[in-house]
Design brief:
The structure holds 2 protein chains of 2 kinds. Chain A is mainly α. Helix content of chain A is 73%, strand content 0%. Chain A is globular. Chain B contains 6 helices and no strands. The chains are: A mainly alpha, B mainly alpha.
């Protein structure tokens, strides 16, 4: 467990929790990123606007991190371009079919004690663990 | 206007949290999913930190009749676990394990300008469009 970073993980998690709470308390919306990005495909302008602003915010957060630390965003992509495209298709289709992702189900849904979100989180974590086991240790 | 500022600020806070926690890094997320390898439990601490704030706050928030700046809370109405929830979550989990990306970190990591990140996000939006086209 040499890569384990519990303190920065916990601090980052608290920030994510705070963002989730602000969205619900002030705007009454679930901070679920797959729903927010998926909703950008709507034709209704009022549905697109707030979601686009939230996405711009995500990028501003990344730039703020880079400014504050004076370094690059720590992003290491190890999969090939083809695998990234296949994975992107699965993540996009799967999160819409399953009504959410790590944020919508894993944070907002579990925080509401939603049975659907608890089940969804167990399923995508289980599928992720099996996938990494197969690609990393078997294939 | 105020609501738009909330969207922007909450988005930035969320993106900053993903960066600080290291969850924008697909290699780190795969380290969490790799339970039989060199396991990195950080993701559990990120989710735990987020829930530490959101569970008690949601209990208080839902005592209100409405949000501060909007007319209603927009919450999912489905209550039952169905095949779509299970199948969709399983497909998502496979894609997550293959790439190390889920939607939030992938979008946030666009700030790096890296080609594979763009490829993932474009494919993800295409996957969402395919869903919309089929259903």
């Amino acid at each position: 467990m040499e890569n384990f970073t519990p303190v920065s993980g916990l601090i980052g998690g608290l920030l994510i929790g705070l963002a989730t709470v602000l969205m619900m308390l002030l705007n009454g919306r679930i901070a679920g990123i797959s729903g927010i990005v998926g909703g950008l495909l709507a034709r209704n302008g009022s549905e697109v606007g707030w979601r686009a602003v939230f996405v711009v915010g995500l990028l501003l957060g990344a730039f703020a991190y880079m400014l504050a630390t004076g370094g690059a965003l720590p992003v290491r992509v190890e999969a090939s371009l083809l695998v990234m495209v296949v994975a992107g298709l699965l993540v996009g289709f799967g999160t819409r079919l399953g009504s959410g992702c790590t944020s919508g189900h894993g944070v907002s849904g579990i925080a509401r004690f939603s049975k659907r979100s608890i089940v969804a989180t167990l399923v995508f974590m289980g599928a992720g663990i099996v996938t990494v086991f197969l690609t990393g240790h078997v294939l | 206007m105020l609501r738009m500022l909330v969207n922007l600020f909450a988005g930035a806070l969320f993106g900053l949290g993903l960066a600080v926690s290291g969850m924008v890094d697909p290699a780190k997320v795969i380290g969490f999913l790799d339970v039989t390898g060199d396991w990195d439990p950080t993701l559990a601490f990120v989710m735990g930190g987020a829930l530490l704030v959101s569970i008690p706050a949601f209990r208080l928030i839902f005592k209100r009749r409405r949000p501060v700046l909007a007319d209603d809370f927009e919450l999912p109405t489905k209550k039952d676990v169905d095949a779509r929830l299970l199948g969709g979550s399983a497909l998502f989990g496979v894609g997550w394990g293959l790439s190390g990306f889920c939607p939030g970190p992938a979008v946030t990591a666009l700030a790096t300008g890296l080609t594979p990140v763009f490829a993932f996000v474009v494919a993800m939006i295409a996957g969402m469009a395919i869903y919309k086209w089929i259903f």
